[in-house]
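Morning. Coffee machine broken again, so started the prediction first thing and wrote up yesterday's gels while waiting. Chain of 129 residues, entered below exactly as on the submission form.
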Amino acid sequence: MDDVLTIGEMCAAYQVTARTLRFYEQKELIWPIRQGSHRLYDRKARARLQLILRGKRFGFSLEDIRQLLDMYEREGSNQAQLERTYAVAVDRLGQMVAQRDELDLAIAELKQELAEGAAMIAAFKAAAE
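Came back before lunch.
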């Protein structure tokens, strides 16, 4: 078992906590090899964790990630998995663009409010002098 990492090594390598790894295990996203009370992570578990972290960075739900990972067929073409991943990603991109647009609008409005507030403060200060 030369190609396995301990939970501590996984945490260091992927900058996650042990609690995160145990949570992903509980959610059936990764399956470490168990040796007594020790968890060991093989190449498959590490690959799955990388995909989980990427999915989370893109804002995919854990359920979407689990379903997409479960579609993987070692000896298959994985066309269905790719098509579903593409569809989820397109949907998520649409959500992200909408959120960005809303945020851009909120930023513009707040800048306007701050400019008006600064003008009012300056007027108060000028009137007090």
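Residues 71-129 form one domain. Going to sketch it on the whiteboard this afternoon.
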